[in-house]
Structures are given as structure tokens and as C-alpha cells.
């Protein structure tokens, strides 16, 4: 009788033996740049400052409109390096997979990581796989760690933020978080709402070429732009003032926020950046950003003031003002 | 940009009308609903009003008014090995006795899940046939028809491991209790839009006829709230007291009779304990005897203590009745913060204290 072809990952595939070897050979070697598969990847890097970051991805659902946990895991770490001003070069990819996970889903995720790495022009050079028993993890967790090279003279630091600097956002806010929430709750939109996950290193490279006066950059992921701006205000001891009507927000995100009682300022993003720049360069930088495929919806959204220190203030369309704080828990939809 | 300019011009005209119509004496308007509270903060509306108009927040956040007793019961249920407790998100963080919450209990092994809709709870029951799924049902007239519809669906689908713990509350009896309290002084009510979409206008008529106070059922956008306030001021200026509907795009005078009939089909009105306020007669909903096989209060032997007063230092009660503003509470922002709340008003995003804390209390000059 013919043996049934297994379509799920076995606990033994994390045991370091033949099953694991087969898994790596079949799924990871074709997708990544693992070289001779030594215990360490040996990298040739020019002398200079290195940027080094790590991030873990535990998203649910694993697959969503416009992306999946794989593309997210590559782009997230690429963007963490990029907003530090670094040019991302190499990534590691470590997988914790639950016993019984569909191999077809693993293949989709790995292929997605491979494509995202190619798009971002980075190499995945080392990795790790662990398999845990059924019920011991939520299907699959991915950690990516990244190394990038910091060009001379580039420094993104909240300490450089100065009074009268201008705040620029590179795209619509809240798309990723809204997409995930709608995916979890079976809400659909016409036109569909897609995640914004994408690598920002190409856009940032052009920005750094255009202006030497970008003081601070941040990719506002969890906690949204409210949290990122609040962190910048606290670290710089300055006041950030945002004009609500200048914020680029997709109609679908506005609709979802109205429906569930959420604030778009706090919704996660995965493919936009906030830049705080010297006012004299703001217009030419915005023009450069708008020309880039990932910066078409860029907008100046506010400015830096000297006081009240450490605060983020939103000027509403009505001319009222409100203070923005960091969120404490994930936003949850209202119940009335 | 042209649309924005036009909007700003219209709003500026409306704000001017409000200033022209406002009486010279100080007045208090209560926004009953938590969604209004948040919207008022988010749009910076207080800063646009004349100084003599105070907006005070009422008891219209279902999370905030859920009693410690009910929270303790939900935590006890979530600790039962055979139970998966399911509820709406904000309920996870509401403190029960000793500041324990469903969220904290989960870290110690209790099972609870957050859903966006009661129907999701039914799906969890279908997916976990070996467990008993208890929906911890909180909310006002907006959510109780959904719970009723979910029970109806459970009957149709033959789901027999789904139960409901009803902590539902009714808005009009709470307003009656407020108006009957000698220390509460309110000159007009911004009435909730979503609740009114269900119950209509009639249940509020006593506010005007018995207590001679105006009320306006109001929407949640900045222009709708300003319009609601203006409509109240026109009534106050004319010494009039009526219940009016500003939110006519959603609310019909008769409400939604089908939704009301669903509530009446599955629930009986009962007395209820409101956190911070106390017992209010005929202000809650319990499942009818006919549906007692769905009633978690009857099915599970939970050791329920009688309701006790909340933390003595916590002023949620006075905040919920509009007697005090959150910053007047000694615990506000010190011992009581959203990350570790003492009172329920600091838990829900729509609680008065959380809204004050998150949006900086008042406006920025």
C-alpha cells in the first residue's frame, strides 16, 4: 500500500535529525541565502557603524489582505533598521512552529519571506527551526534579526529634534491594524482594505539623499502614530502639534474606526514612517517622498514647538485641541 | 480642502449660535453616553463652549457601571475548569475585589476570550463542544437584543453548551435615579444615540414631563454633538422641556420595535446594582425563567456575595452621577491609572476618568 503523503509538520521535525534536515532542505534552502549552513553566517561588512535589531512576529490571522506573517517578519526588521538611517544588509529568520502546522502554509510563508527579502534587497543568511507540541504555540512564531550599515553622517535621534521642525508621515495611517482587525472579524470593504506592509529602505535612501536635515525617523507600528510621536516628544523634551485634518486616512479606516469606536492615531502601521525634519527642507523632502511608489500619500501633518514639553497635542478640524497620551492596552471596540 | 473650509465655517456659525443662545448663568449638561464623552474630548468641544456651560459625564458606560459582584462572578466562572468565559474586550480589565480582573486571572490559568459580537461566542461554543461557554453579557439596550438573537440562534442550531450571564442594564431608570437624587443638579441631557435607536423617544419622556428638564437624542460626530447642545440651549432659553431627536438619520421616535420585542421575549426586568451608584429598581435584565437552561447564574453554583460599596477613596460614584469631575478624585492619575485602575471609570476607553486621563482632562490653551 502506498504511504500517505504527510501534509503537516511533525514534532520530530524540530529534533535536529533527519526530519529537520529534510524540512530545511525542502523549504528554507531554496528560499534563503544560507550558504554552507554553518553554525554561523560569515559576513563581509565594510568598516563603519553597524545597526543591529531584532523583532518577533506572532500575528493572527497569519494571512491577511495584502500580506502575511512572512512578509511582515522581513519588512518589520528591514524598517527598524531603515528608520535608524541604516542600509539593511542581512537578516536571520528563526521559526517556532506548532506540531501539526500545515506544510503548505509554511511553504507560502517562506516564499513570501523570500520575495520580501528580494524586494528589500536584503539576504536571509542564517536561521533556526523549533517545533513545539500541539497547543504549545499559536501555529507559528517568527523572529527576525537584522544587521545594517549606517552611512557616515547619518543619525536619527530624538535628541536632534528642534523647535519649528516639521512632522511628515509617508502614507495613510492605520491601514495595517484596520486590515488585521477586519480580517479577524469578517468585515470586508469595497474597495478592499490592504495591509501597508512594505520595505521602507528604498524610500528612506532617497530621503537621506534629498536632505541632510532629517532629525528623527520612526516606523509607527504597535500603538500607532500617537505612541511614536509621544515617545519622540518625551525623548526630545519638546511639544509636538498635529493638525487632525492633515492626517492621511483611508475612508475604510475611518469607517472601521467609527464602527468600532477606535482612534486611528493608535492603530498599528507596518509600511509608513514618521520623519521629523528641519522646516527649510520640508517641502523638497515631501516632493521627493511623493514621487516614490511607497510615499505617494506623504503629508506634512504638524510641527514641533518648545512647550508644553513632552506633550503631543492634536488640533481638531473644529479648532479644538486635545492631548494625546500613549495607550495602555490594545484598543478594544466599544460595547454600546 | 474646500470641503474642510466649508465645514469649519458651518461649525464656526454653530459655535457662535451656541454662544448667542447660552444663558448668562452657569448650567450643567450631562452627556449620558460614554461614546459622547470620548467624542467631546477627541474633538476638543469643551474649549469651544461658553465658560458657563459645563459638560458632565453620566453613567452611560456599561463597563463602568458593572458591579464588583458581577465581575467577581465572571472571574469565578472563568476559573472553572470546564468553562470558557467570553466577553467584550473592555470587561477584561475591570477590577473586581482586590483589584483582580479577568485579564489578570487569565495569567493564573483562567480561560477567557474576547469577542466583538455575541455570535462569536456561539461559534466558540460550537468549536469547543467539551467546554461550557459562558457569555458575560454587559451593556445597555444596544447590546441586549444581540444577546437575545444569539440565544435564539443557539436554540435553532441546537447548541447546548452556551450560557449567558446577564449583567445588562437599562438607561432610563438610571436617569430617573439621577434626577431623583437631591445632590445631582443637571439642566439638560445629551441623550445616547445608539440606545435610542433601539428604545426610541418615549422612555425618556418622563425627564421632560416629571422633572421639566430638556433632553436631546444626539449623534456622535462633532457637528451632531454641537447641534444637540444648541437644541438644548434653545429649550433652556425658552424655559421649555421636551425630548427631541437630533440624530434623526438613525433614531426614529418609535425606535426599533423588533429589537425591543426580542428583549421582551428573552429577558425580564429586574433590580440591578450599578457600580458607584448603588441599587436602582427595575434597571437590569435577567433571563426569563423559560430560558433558565441558558442562565449561567442558575446553572453554575457561583458563591455570590451581596454587593458592597466600592473603594472608599474612589469617587467613581460621584463621577458617574456628575457630581464630581475625575481630576477631583484623590486617586486620579496617582493610585488609579488605566494600566492598573481602582475604579471602573478608569477602565473603559469610554469611562470618564480614562477619557480625562487619556485626553489630558481639559483642553490645552
In words, what does this structure look like?
The complex is a heterodimer of chains A (336) and B (365). By secondary structure, chain A is an alpha+beta fold. Chain A has a 7-stranded mixed β-sheet with strand order 8-10-7-11-9-12-13. In chain A, strands 1-6-4-5 form a 4-stranded mixed β-sheet, covered by helices on one side. The mean pLDDT of chain A is 91. In chain B, α1 packs parallel to α10 and α6 crosses α11. At the A-B interface, β13 of A face α1 and α2 of B.
Write the layout of secondary structure elements.
The complex is a heterodimer of chains A (336) and B (365).
Chain A (H helix, E strand, L loop, with lengths): L17 H11 L20 E9 L5 E2 L2 E2 H14 L4 E12 L4 H18 L2 E10 L7 E11 L15 E4 L5 H11 L15 H10 L3 E5 L5 H13 L2 E5 L7 H10 L13 E4 L1 H13 L7 E7 L6 E4 L5 E4 L12
Parallel strand pairs in A: 4-5, 9-12
Antiparallel strand pairs in A: 1-6, 2-3, 4-6, 7-10, 7-11, 8-10, 9-11, 12-13
Helix pairs in contact in A: 2-3, 4-7, 5-8
Chain B lengths: L1 H20 L5 E7 H9 L10 E8 L7 H12 L3 E6 L13 H6 L4 E4 L2 H10 L4 E6 L6 H14 L4 E5 L1 E2 L1 H10 L7 E4 L1 H7 L5 H5 L5 E3 L4 H16 L5 E3 L11 H10 E8 L3 E10 L8 H4 L16 H5 L31 H7 L7
Parallel strand pairs in B: 1-2, 1-8, 3-4, 3-5, 5-6, 8-9, 9-10
Antiparallel strand pairs in B: 7-12, 11-12
